[in-house]
Design a protein that fits this description.
transmembrane helix, metal ion binding, heme, metal-binding, single chain, Succinate dehydrogenase cytochrome b556 subunit, 127 residues
């Protein structure tokens, strides 16, 4: 095989899929989702400063099905990114770097993010 036909870098098809790979991709995706959520927060604040009509428009969108799904997704993104960030801080201390503890800590991050999201939404709707 000549150097001209060789791939420049390995592709995802070369690697065997692992939980740690999925959690890494999910961590990056939730970071992007949090950035979009921050833009929505800015829109909400601008609408708040703009007056009652603009604020009502943004609030109506937030109360719609699409708005609630987006807010639920942003809430989960926040908790997953936080839990996985704590997981990475533990890794920085030199702990949980072996495959089994790394996989288990990923499962714990995912589970805790779901539980915390549900808890926040139940508390928000119960009050």
């Amino acid at each position: 095989m000549s150097a001209k036909n060789r791939p420049l870098s390995p592709h995802l098809q070369v690697y065997r899929w692992q939980w740690t790979m999925a959690y890494s991709i999910l961590h990056r995706a939730t970071g992007v989702a949090l950035s979009v959520g921050a833009l929505f927060l800015v829109c909400w604040l601008v609408a708040l400063a703009g007056g009652a009509a603009e604020f009502t428009l943004v609030q109506d969108f937030s109360a719609s099905i699409i708005g609630k799904i987006m807010l639920l997704g942003w809430t989960w993104s926040l908790f997953y990114h936080l839990a996985n960030g704590i997981r990475h801080m533990v890794w920085d201390s030199g702990r949980w770097l072996e495959l089994k503890p790394a996989e288990l800590s990923g499962h714990i991050s995912l589970a805790s993010s779901v539980v915390l999201t549900l808890l926040v939404w139940v508390l928000a709707y119960s009050s």
